[in-house]
Protein: Cytosine permease
Amino acid sequence: MTPSSIEFKSHVEQEALAGRLPVLARDRVYKTYGSFLWTCCAFSAATWAFLIGSYLPYVGDWRLGVMGYVIGLMIGMAIVTLASGVPSHKYGTDVIDNAKASFGYRGIVVPLFGLLATLVGWSYVVEALTARGAANIAATMTGTEVTGTSHEHLVIGVALAALVLVWLIASKGPKLFERLNGYIGPLHMFITLVMLGILIHKFGLQHLWTTQLPADQMLSKDPVQGFALAVEFGVSNSMTWWPVMGGLTRLVAKRKHVVGPSVVGVGVLGAAFVSTVAALAAISAGTYDPTIWMIAVGGPVFGSIVMAIVLTANIATMVVMIYLAGVSVQQIKFFARLKWEFLLALLLLPGVYFAFKTQWLLSVVMSWLSYNGVMFVGITGITLVDYFVLRREQIDVTSLFAHKGGKYEFWNGVNWIAVIVTVASTFGYLWLYNPVTVAMAEPFRYLGASLPVILLSGAAYYLCVRLLIWPLRKGDYQATSGVISRPSLVSQREAGTVAVSL
Structure:
């Protein structure tokens, strides 16, 4: 192989891993079951995993809360991985590119908005959680107050340092954070296991198993409703993984390593184990704030060490989210022309402002993000039915990079049926359950919200395609019985000018 061909191969690989080019099988970074498992585990076991677990006792019986949350998350992760992860793995394409088959090349602005708001927005939230958690550790170790100017200065400094560290790691591409997560994931699980051992030693198994929150603090005294609420926490949480799984599975080498690590890494290790320990610790310490109960349970020294490791996992989580956002935002031509390092810096730039507003961010923006994630319930139902039922797992990859005249043009680039179903499903979900006010309609008690909305949105989309889109011969649905199209390697700068088959 000549030096020029080696250089070209390296350039193409970099364009794929840091851009929208389909990732070739030989270039994918997750070669084994464990490598992808630990990335899913490290991503899901950040501070929010302990925070959610600490909230589960509030649904009623903490045992029902943990069990319902785990069941919901495992079901939801299986659905989401099928809807966004399987197509991305098969063709090596980004999740937003795949969504063009159902939303159109302009209609993908709807899932793209949700993706960017979720990934970038939560990156800033994790930045704030990391900064305030690190400042609390410093205050505990030095015996100083967690209020005052010096404390806030430390919060700001940690937040800015976190942004720089995330930029440095993400700039190197997914190969680096795949290696880092191979250490962070197992270490996180080990620390959580040690925390469980401390809880058992301090309080005893009998006390931990039977102790509940005071009844006046519970969201519901009805065990059926409490269990439904916990299941919904799990399913709705997994829906926000729609942009994540599609972005990560294009980097997985083998199909048999797609669903298992997703469900086990997120549902079992990142949820079942972590949330159980967090629920027990929250009840025992009398607070849902993990930055407080970790130190209260583990002691000032060990509790601070545990918190530091959890904060390290936060950095890994931010790296994954910013990387995925950086790939997907290149759907917009302006961002596609930017150098990868500069693009990531641009995405992280608002975080400099939020470094000075961490308290406001945690109190206000998290509520908006809770509403924002609801839209993925309908998107999941649409993309699941579109890929497996209507298209029979066949996508013309070349058309994903084409605009006018492509097979997925629909109506001037927009599939209005998919957009309308997404909007309708969002309102339907909020009628069944409001994630901020916790208002629940009567059917929620037995059905939850996410699962029926996924089912109804998928069914509605199927009927609309068969009755409206199919007869108008839009979207290339008639070609599902043809030859399966192979991925094409298309330049992110000049779409359609380069084609290299897998």
Q: What stands out?
A: The chain is about 70% helix and 0% strand. Residues 27-371 form a domain with the Hydantoin permease fold (CATH 1.10.4160.10). The two ends are 19 Å apart (CA to CA). Residues 109-142 form the longest helix (34 residues).
